[in-house]
Write a structure and sequence with these properties.
The protein is an all-alpha fold. Helices cover about 70% and strands about 0% of the residues.
Length: about 675
């Protein structure tokens, strides 16, 4: 018990850990509040508006609600009306949904064709859902509870707080040189590692419970949900649940499973920290683990032989919304098996293996490669390498070679070159395909002839539309199908005509297919990859700059620097030059392949065209598209420089290397996560 108390005391009383942790906790609370009352998941309405509309619909009879939603007239809260209507229709069709599952639905996650399997699955579904009563499921306005169950930024902040606990318990201990004392103590290093794991679990459970209970209170109070005794199927996202549970009972199960999933994730991260030991290696291991897991979730199809790696990616343990949303069947040897059951068994086995490995771990002292190289840059010629004649070169050697920055950069370059996949043009609908075809046909100088061509085509389709309305009954089925296929192009042509309206009257107008340029800037379509690039760049910058700014202090050479003829001020100036150089190298490694591949995929040739030719850039129309993109990435590189300066500030205020890395990462990544 004394050892347990001692580890708990370490967790909350040293190196400003508690201050940093409370700041992270406060940031989580603020982000939650902001998402409810300001962002609201991208909705164009406030929770209070949803409450008014939901209360109005709950007080209507089924006939009145059907009549209300069938009206063409749009009322005061139009976006709210659309959301409530979608939820009401989903609940209203629950009986049909239930019958489809009982008598004809596959209920599985994969396309399954074998008749034997389908028969077995059908019998199992009939048994699972036979107790469900559709009369218990009516509209209850449960959007607040559904949003509470979403996997969102709260889970990311939860993971960050868990990582902070692990850094404090494991990585700080390895860096502090306490291993010799621990191994010579009566308790031993292995037992100490077990106690650290127990302390981390208790701290993690307490923090996660506080965050989720606050989140539950916030969402249910904001959206006015009070129907705790209703069946859980009144929540549209959880209509597929095959258990007769109340909303309150389901939430208890949900929170317990969520905590279990996070503890599984905590155990994985704890073991990786025991393997990595020092800050840089641990962060690299975390990056590899998260990258591989995300690739398993987003890069592997649900069908095929590799689907197993997607179903059982370790990060799925956080996504309880998927695991608990209903009965999902996996096909194993021609038998349907619950995905939740298989996942629970697989994660439990892996959890036991990791715990066994952790209990056998010994946290060992980590020495910097610079610690044994005390030659300094000033003084007699014998105390510095003869081929390093400048202070700038010596500081670069210390950071790039002795502290291993060059290894991290080479590893990143290898990942970018061998793992990176170029962006592909994503065409989701026939309208998008036709829009691309038309714009690429017209791309170039805007002329009156091009506009007349588009307007002539619009008039032809409008005439066809009128003829279909007037004489549609005389069309054959084939003719009607062809006519409707042509009429689908009308909206696209009108969109192109609107774009030409925008270009009309501008100086030197130029028609541009905007998708590639928007992709480069992460605007509108898809910006997810660019955000991942920015996150990777910030993580690398913090890792490298932490070693740059703190190497002399952590390697016990700071007093030598202060006593030298050069002095700390000039040394810090040279370190700032290397800070700029690190940002430039990281920017080239991360962003240049992305820009090149986007240019190849979308054939971007209008670099010199004024940016004002695209509506998205009308506010900066005085610049060319090439200059806009160049300035965008220059600003990203400057942000990396700022991240290095923030790391320097954190290093001056915090003595622990691991805590410096963590604090700098949180400060520099939050703007990227929230606004990039």
């Amino acid at each position: 018990m004394h050892l347990f108390k001692q580890e708990w005391k370490k967790l909350i009383t040293r190196d400003g850990f508690l201050v940093v942790f409370l700041l992270c906790f406060a940031a989580t609370i603020f982000i939650l509040w902001n998402r409810v009352y300001r962002v609201s998941y991208g909705d164009d309405f406030l929770p209070s508006q949803y409450c008014k509309m939901a209360d109005r619909v709950k007080n209507m009879t089924e006939t009145e609600a059907e009549s209300y939603f069938s009206e063409d007239k749009q009322e005061e809260y139009d976006p709210v009306r659309n959301v409530v209507q979608k939820e009401w229709k989903s609940i209203h069709n629950y009986e049909n949904y239930l019958n489809k599952i009982r008598y004809g639905g596959s209920g599985g996650l994969r396309g399954l064709k074998e008749n034997v399997y389908q028969e077995r699955l059908q019998k199992k579904l009939q048994n699972k859902y036979r107790k469900m009563d559709p009369t218990e499921v009516t509209f209850a306005g449960g959007r607040g509870v559904s949003l509470f169950c979403h996997t969102d930024v709260t889970d990311i902040m939860g993971v960050l707080m868990i990582l902070l606990i692990i850094f404090r318990l494991v990585v700080w201990e390895a860096e502090s040189g306490m291993d010799g004392i621990n191994m010579s103590a009566r308790n031993g290093a292995s037992r100490l590692t077990r106690v650290k794991w127990y302390v981390g679990i208790l701290a993690s459970i307490g923090v996660l419970l506080d965050v989720w209970l606050y989140k539950l209170w916030l969402y249910t109070s904001a959206y006015g949900f009070t129907e705790w005794n209703r069946a859980v199927q009144v929540l549209p996202e959880f209509m597929g649940v095959n258990l007769r549970l109340s909303v309150l009972g389901f939430l208890c199960v949900f929170i317990v499973c969520k905590i279990a999933g996070f503890l599984f994730l905590y155990t994985i991260f704890f073991w990786l920290a025991c393997v990595g030991r020092n800050t840089v290696r641990t962060v690299i291991l975390y990056g590899l683990f998260v990258g591989i897991s995300l690739f398993g979730i987003y890069g592997i199809s649900l069908s095929g032989y590799l689907a197993f790696f997607r179903y059982f990616s370790p990060l799925q343990c956080v996504n309880q919304e998927m695991l608990l949303s209903g009965y999902h069947a996996l096909k194993i040897f021609q038998y349907p098996v619950s995905y939740l059951v298989v996942w629970t068994v697989a994660s439990s086995v892996l959890f036991c293996i990791l715990v066994r490995l952790i209990f056998r771990c010994r946290i060992q002292k980590v020495e910097s490669s610079l610690a044994g190289k005390l030659r300094f840059h000033r003084g007699s010629i014998g105390y510095r390498p003869k081929h390093i004649q400048s202070l700038f070169g010596w500081e670069g050697r210390k950071g790039m070679f002795y502290e291993g920055s060059i290894v991290v950069l080479i590893m990143t370059l290898g990942v970018v070159l061998f793992v990176y996949r170029p962006p592909q043009e994503s065409i989701f609908t026939a309208k998008e395909d036709y829009y691309r075809e038309v714009i690429l046909d017209l791309q170039g100088r805007y002329t009156a002839e091009k506009r007349d061509l588009i307007r002539g085509r619009i008039r032809e389709l409008e005439d066809l539309e009128k003829d279909v309305e007037k004489n549609g009954q005389n069309y054959t089925a084939t003719a009607m199908q062809v006519a409707m296929s042509e009429l689908e192009k009308l909206d696209v042509l009108r969109e192109v005509d609107t774009y030409m309206d925008y270009l009309d009257g501008r100086e030197s107008p130029y028609i541009v297919y905007e998708k590639g340029y928007l992709l480069l800037l992460g605007k509108k379509i898809p910006g997810g990859y660019l955000k991942l690039c920015s996150i990777l760049a910030v993580v690398l910058m913090v890792l490298l700059s932490t070693r740059l700014w703190g190497e002399d202090e952590w390697c016990q050479t700071k007093m030598l620097c202060m006593a030298s003829r050069t002095g700390m001020k000039k040394i810090m100036h040279r370190k700032m030059y290397w800070n700029f150089l690190y940002a430039l190298l990281i920017g080239m490694i991360i962003y240049v392949p992305w820009i090149y591949q986007c240019g190849q995929t979308y054939s971007l040739k209008a670099w010199s065209v004024a940016a004002g030719n695209l509506p998205a850039f009308k506010e900066i129309g005085f610049m060319s598209l090439g200059n806009v993109i160049l300035c965008s990435y220059v600003l990203r590189v400057l942000y990396l420089v700022i991240a290095g300066c923030v790391t320097k500030l954190m290093q001056r205020k915090i003595s622990s290397q691991s805590l410096t890395v963590y604090t700098a990462l949180v400060c520099c990544l939050l703007p990227v996560l929230l606004f990039a």
